[in-house]
Design brief:
The chain contains six helices and 16 strands. The N and C termini lie close together (about 5 Å). With about 280 residues, it is α+β, with helices and mostly antiparallel strands.
Amino acid sequence: MHWAARQLAEGRVFVDGLRCGSGLAGLVGSEQVVSVRPDSGPELELPVVKEFYLKFFKPRGVITSHSMEKLSARPVISACYPTGAPQSLHFAGRLDRDSEGLVLLTTDGLLSYFATTPGAHLDKEYMVVTSCQRDGRPPSEDSLQMLRDGVELYDGLARAQEAEVVDFDGRFARLRIVVSEGRFRMVRRMLRSVGYCVMQLLRTKASGVQGVQLPSMQEAVKDHSLHKRAGFTIQAAPALLAKDTSCLQPGEFAPLSPPEVNNIYNKGLRMWEAAGKKDDF
């Protein structure tokens, strides 16, 4: 843990004279006074560094990377960063190219670590559209229980904390899947292991942050067909500030609220405290 994080975890950081510990962390206004009170020596007043905490609705077809892939015309997520974003802005957690939904963007490296480390137990929720035309039935309770119990993948056991069918129209079904890991294309591989394809995979919640527009299943199926056309690519553009910050549309962003940032920090700090790892970083 770097010096600043260690001071925070050990309860030596104060904001306007109030201790900033596991019950308070994250956002500090530019008008507030931040200080560190070491075990010995004088109190240190620290400059407040402005950090950026954003949520972004990554469109399908955008690669979660800062550099273009060789021989690929597909856009990267950094091409979608808001106009005027600082160079230190980066994504905290990935979504594969064919998936869409919430991605956190920040300049705060410690928050990135907390948001992506499995030990913080910050769940990710996905809405998945799959075809049921094989037998005209939604995934059975037995299949859902297999996902909850865990399925063996090439990189180890993968388990869903929650798995349920939330919609079915006779041809397609929408599933709600909650996981606490973020392995490469993990949810897709889990569904494939129980016999189902993924037509749309949309992350609706990440690290306690939510707020995206959920399309109808018919719209999801139509969009799936569009993206499967040979040579189809989307055009990247700087993200627009959402008019409704509680319901982002693809390509929109919104700032995180202080409680959302604090939730990530608090869970990360509790993880460190529980593991007794204050001196391991």
